[in-house]
Amino acid sequence: MNIFESVRVAWGGLVGNKLRSALTMLGVIIGVAAVIALVSIGQGARAMVTEQIQGLGSNLIMVTPRGGAGRLYLQDVADLTSRVPELAAAIPDLTRQFTVKWGTSDYSTTIEGTAPGYEQVRNQNVAEGRFLIQSDIDQRRHVAVVGYKVYTDLFGERDPIGEQILINGSSFTVVGLMEEKGQGLGMNYDDRVIIPISTAQRMMGTNRIATILAQAKSSDQAAPAVARITAIYEKKFPTQNPPNDDAIMVQSQDQILSTVNTATQTMTLMLGGIAGVSLIVGGIGIMNIMLVSVTERTREIGIRKAIGAKRRDILAQFLVESMILSLTGGLIGVLMGVGLGRLGSLINIPSTVSMASIITAFVFSAAVGLFFGIYPAMTAAVLDPIEALRYE
Amino acid sequence: MSPVATPVIELRQVAKIYNPGEAAVNALDHVDLTIEEGEMVAIMGPSGSGKSTMMNVIGMLDRPTSGEYRLLGEDMSRKNDNQLAEERNRRIGFIFQNFNLLSRLTALQNAELPLLYRGVPGPERRETSRKALEAVGLGNRMHHRPSQLSGGESQRVAIARTIATDPAIVLGDEPTGNLDSRSGAEVMAIFQDLNRRGRTVIIVTHDEQIAHHCKRIVRVRDGKLVRDEVVSQPLVASPGTMPFAGAGGGRG
Questions:
Q1: Which chain A residue has its CA at the smallest distance from B59's CA?
Q2: Residue of chain B nearest A3, judged by CA positions
Q3: Average confidence score pLDDT of chain B
Q4: Does B113 touch chain A (CB under 8 A)?
Q5: Within the 161-190 window of chain B, which residues sit less than 8 Å (CB to CB) from chain A?
Q6: Per residue in B107-160, pLDDT tens?
Q7: Nearest CA-CA distance, residue A381 and chain B, Å
Q8: Is B101's Cβ below 8 Å from some Cβ in A?
Q9: B89 in contact with chain A, both atoms CB, cutoff 8 A
Q10: pLDDT recorded at residue A391
Q11: What tens digit of pLDDT does each residue of B30-70 get?
Q12: A173-226 pLDDT per residue, tens
């Protein structure tokens, strides 16, 4: 008997018991759909975080004191610019949360002290007015460039250029408005007011800076730049034990990306694994129902054997039945999983349905059908024809 | 029957022992039996006499514990399960008391089943089975399921299933046991017709009336052959006329 005949015979068996077949299949459907939907959500989260990190700027390198001995001053920015030829730009960064007042309205936001070059490094330009210039820094001017959200929330979309605002009680003149950028990594790039770093240091009562944001000339230059900067600070703040506990942390965008990717990858695998368990439970359901089916159809097996069915014919019949259950379930599950993924995207749960997860889930469901189908099919194949014919 | 012809069935010292050990049951106790081509034999005996076991051995559903079984001169004792399945499929046509049709399948699909396992391609299979069903007078019932058929019709589907395979031997296990006398007569008429066309027919029964439709009666008791007689004037079954005594009786 060839495989097509086996499929026909097996199909007949399944159609003979539609509700039971459908319910058995449901186990696999849910399993496969869960695997695909959860993996899609995991991968969607990864894609979103990746996009946000890339949105920070391009070829970005962050230099941050880890606490303890490490310290950064404004001078460090100039040092790095001159000593690291791979860098295109470097800017200081110092942020703190303050209340901003305009007229009678007040508003709590992030005050970011920085310097010219910010536009290039952050990949964000002014929409109106001007950005900070070097003389603002040198003369510690009280000028501010406001983010888009500050513009809408504080000024109610009235032209802010030239307006006076109070930051932490000091008066600032608004000279520019940044273009809208959106949120990412728990930060809203539009919800901030940018002021000269020197002014910010005075207001915050410090002569240090929090971070140096540097930009490599190209993505190829990022790694050598990181190495060079790291070397500079290792010399300046000799490493103590343990050896990887540097005083200054130097991280390129790629490094951050790969760290985050590792984390989201683990999350995706975990989600997929949990869903995979439900697929295995679905497989046990198949085995259970196939065992019942073999018992119920003992007499049928006896008849088939009496008229010439070989062991392998009976084996094929029942194995193909469980394979049809798992493959059809797998197929419907894939469709449902993809549908759930799409639905997630619609309601703002980021999800990316990948071909790899579809194929993996489908192949896994086939394997489940084979694995859990083989025992019931063997039981059927080795039945003694006389015993089977006598079965009531 | 020329003396040089190979017998269809040869049992030599065939024994079948269930539960070997203390509670051993000698279902067949070293039986010798030869059946030539074209014979129509009834195997008779009370319940537990071993006649069903003999039938299962001849039909290769069961293997003898010892002894030799030759079918058309070929030793079946040495064949494995797959080979026996193939021999069953090619040589033997079973007719059971309770028909043993698959309830899910139509009459035509039931009749096709042995050919399916023989590997006959679909169109040829359907054609052969259709002809077989027409031959037993069920040309208008092909797409009915067993539940929509009477007992007599069901048994005729089973016979069509057998005819379709063109077997050398037709084995009936109480084939009229579940039928009313009229349907029983129809079935016996078909058996006699099959025999007239050269097939060897063996019927297991406990019914004298049925047995006397055969040319030879072998009587079994306690696993042994106790009598082997030739029926000088076999009854001729013609549908509707046969006075069945005790049709619908038990099983051996």
A1: A306
A2: B119
A3: 88
A4: yes
A5: 161, 165
A6: 999 999 999 999 899 899 999 999 999 998 898 999 999 999 999 999 999 999
A7: 11
A8: yes
A9: yes
A10: 86
A11: 999 999 999 999 999 988 888 889 999 999 999 899 999 99
A12: 999 999 988 766 667 788 999 999 999 999 999 989 999 999 999 888 888 999
**pLDDT tens-digit profile of A288-313?**
999 999 999 999 999 999 999 999 99
Positions of E strands within chain A: 60-65, 87-102, 105-114, 126-129, 143-146, 164-167, 170-178, 183-184, 187-188, 192-196, 211-216, 248-252
**Other CB atoms closer than 10 Å to residue B123's CB: what's the count?**
8
**Reported pTM:** 0.74
- B100:A303 CB<8 A: yes
Q: Strand A164-167 and strand A87-102: pairing? A: antiparallel
Amino acid letter, A208: R
Rounded to a whole number, what is the distance in angstroms from the first to the last CA of chain A?
Answer: 28
- Both tokens assigned to A174: 């608004």
Nearest-CB residue to A310 (from B82, B94, B165): B82
In chain B, where the domains are located: 37-62+80-230
Distance of CA B5 to the CA centre of its chain: 22
User: How high is the mean pLDDT of chain A?
Assistant: 88
Q: Which residues contact A255 (CB under 8 A, 6 or more apart)?
A: A226
First to last CA, chain B: 31
Phi and psi angles of residue A34, each rounded to the nearest 5 degrees, phi first: -65, -45
Cβ neighbours, 10 Å, residue B115: 24
Q: Which amino acid is at B10?
A: E
- pLDDT score of B13 more than 90: yes
Distance CA B57, CA B76 (A): 10
**Would the CB atoms of A307 and B161 count as touching at under 8 Å?**
yes
Which CATH architecture group holds B37-62+80-230?
3-Layer(aba) Sandwich (3.40)
Which value does ipTM take for this structure? 0.89
Distance separating alpha carbons of residues B109 and B104, to the nearest angstrom: 9
Contacts with B169 from chain A: Cβ below 8 Å:
none
Q: Determine the residue among A14, A307, A314 to mutate to test chain B binding: the one whose Cβ has the most chain B Cβ atoms within 10 Å.
A: A307
Q: Is the Cβ of A387 closer than 8 Å to some Cβ of chain B? A: no
A307 in contact with B at a CB cutoff of 8 Å?
Answer: yes
Q: Which residues contact A28 (CB under 8 A, 6 or more apart)?
A: A279, A282, A283, A285, A286, A325, A326, A329, A330, A333, A365, A368, A369
Contact status, residue A289 vs residue A17, Cβ threshold 8 Å: no
Q: How far is B165 from chain A (nearest CA, A)?
A: 10
